[in-house]
Design brief:
This protein is of the alpha+beta class. The chain has helices at residues 16-27, 40-45, 54-62, 67-72, 92-96, 105-118, 239-249, 300-321, 325-352, 360-375, 377-388, and strands spanning 2-12, 32-35, 51-52, 74-76, 78-83, 86-91, 100-102, 122-124, 128-132, 141-146, 152-162, 178-193, 203-207, 210-216, 222-228, 262-276, 279-280, 283-285, 291-292. Strands 1, 2, 8, 9, 10, 11, 17 and 18 form an 8-stranded mixed β-sheet that branches. Strands 6-5-13-14-15-12-16-19 form an 8-stranded mixed β-sheet. A 3-stranded antiparallel β-sheet has the order 3-7-4. α1 (16-27) links the parallel β1 and β2 (32-35). α10 packs across α11. It binds flavin-adenine dinucleotide (FAD) and 3,4-dihydroxybenzoic acid (DHB). Residues 49-51, 102, 202, 215, 223, 295-298 line the site of 3,4-dihydroxybenzoic acid.
Length: 392
């Protein structure tokens, strides 16, 4: 038997984008149903991003999600750039008048699921066989799925939000989609470790053997990334090997990297990908469903949440006031920020990683660019403005 329901917005995917959209819409009295293939525990434990732009923090606060973020988030006023044996500080407060905040994606997802569950939201985990009818047709669109108990559900929706990440199904529903892509010839090995960070602010280090990044999750937990070859299997990297390599790539006279138990280890490919347009008829794409950036510069999560902020305004105008202007502009407006972040992430990635296929000429260009960033206020301001977030 098929159970039929009705909602205003059918949301595919309960990552940060889908969950925040459902939360923001509910605050404006707009009903939604969220379907997610993974379990709640899996979504809450999935280790990913950790750094929030100033505007992202403010939006989360403004939407009633600031309590734990303000208590546990770590505000950072800059970063260190390390290359050619020296470590240099960039002061974002001075350069851009803004800060960034470390607060893990896992914690944002937990806060959102707690808020949605407390509000009795329709949020279904562990669904299978999610299908969406033609969003380009005149009639309302139907999102159907099987619950974890095997029951078939059909939800008639005014619109669909495709928040199902890079491997989701909704992007494929946009006919004539243009895609722009770049794969990078390296990957990141990521670890989370039970050891207090050895630094007050993030260290981005370009070393002749490859890039390394020291970030953190709290004052007790460190997170570190190492550039590794694309085909790397994390099983080939026992903890000792990882710490030895990190200690070498982050080394500075008089400074020691503290080591500790590794509690999470994964390999992330590096890719730039943009799909356009981000709308087809009643379907709107948001977050990783439409675009991916390489993680250097920490834009992925911030972009996903910025899409959702725009989409909330557009859907509120469309569904509450029958005003389609913002919905019609959604894709162009979102893509302006997406392309800026795509350029910044590509630039940071290319400047800091060692490409084994490139020669000494490229290496000299990288070092010259890094030298320019730390010695010119204009160049440092460009990095700081992009890193701390966009005003558009
Ligand atoms: P997702 O978080 O991918 O959420 C999509 C959700 O949709 C998932 O829960 C998925 O299970 C669900 N789904 C998929 N298909 C279906 C379907 N058919 N039906 C229903 N549900 C479906 N960004 C940074 O800024 N810094 C980082 O350090 C960083 N590290 C990363 C590491 C990894 C391994 C990955 C993959 C990404 C990383 N990112 C990082 C990017 C950042 O995590 C993403 O940009 C962010 O998660 C995007 O959120 P989203 O909600 O758009 O997509
Ligand atoms: C983090 C990840 C990044 O890619 C980055 O540039 C900064 C911080 C993080 O996971 O904390």
């Amino acid at each position: 038997m098929t159970i039929r329901q009705r909602t205003q917005v059918g949301i595919v995917g309960a990552g940060p984008a889908g969950l925040l959209l459902s939360h923001l819409l509910a605050r404006r009295g707009i009903d939604s149903v969220v379907v997610e293939t993974r379990s709640r525990a899996y979504c809450e434990a999935r280790q990913r991003a950790g750094l929030l732009e100033a505007g992202t923090v403010q939006m989360l606060r403004d939407s009633g999600l600031g309590k734990r973020l303000d208590a546990e988030g770590l505000e950072h006023g800059g970063i260190y750039l390390q290359f050619a044996g020296d470590r240099h500080h960039l002061d974002f407060r001075d350069l851009a008048g803004r800060t960034v905040t470390i607060y893990a994606q896992t914690e944002i997802v937990k806060d959102l699921i707690t808020a949605r569950t407390a509000a009795d939201a329709k949020l279904e985990f562990e669904v299978t066989d999610v299908r969406v009818s033609d969003p380009g047709a005149q009639e309302p669109v139907v999102m159907s799925y099987r619950t974890k108990d095997g029951e078939r559900r059909e939800v008639t929706c005014d619109v669909i939000a495709g928040c199902d990440g890079f491997h989701g199904i909704t992007r494929g529903l946009v006919p004539g989609l243009a895609t722009y892509e770049r794969a990078y010839p390296y990957a990141w090995l990521a670890i989370t470790a039970d050891v207090p960070p050895s630094t007050d602010e993030l260290i981005y280090s370009r070393h002749p053997d490859g890039f390394a990044l020291h970030t953190m999750r709290s004052l007790r937990t460190s997170r570190l990334y190492l550039q590794v070859p694309v085909e790397t299997d994390s099983k080939d990297w026992p903890d000792d090997r990882i710490w030895t390599e990190l200690s070498k790539r982050l080394a500075l006279p008089g400074w020691t990297l503290e080591t500790g138990p590794v509690v999470d280890k994964s390999v992330t490919p590096m890719r730039s990908f943009v799909a356009a347009p981000m709308r087809h008829g009643r379907l709107f794409l948001a977050g990783d469903a439409a675009h991916i950036v390489p993680p250097t510069g920490a834009k992925g999560l911030n972009l996903a949440l910025a899409d959702v902020r725009l989409l909330t305004e557009a859907l509120d105008a469309l569904l509450t006031d029958r005003d389609s202007r913002l919905a019609d502009e959604y894709s162009d407006t979102a893509l302006r920020r997406v392309w800026r972040a795509t350029h910044f992430s590509w630039w940071m990635t290319s400047m800091l990683h060692v490409d084994s296929g490139a020669g000494p000429f490229d290496e000299r260009l990288q070092l010259s660019q890094l030298d320019y960033v730390i010695s010119s206020r204009a160049a440092a301001t460009t990095l700081a403005e992009n890193y701390t977030g966009y005003r558009f």
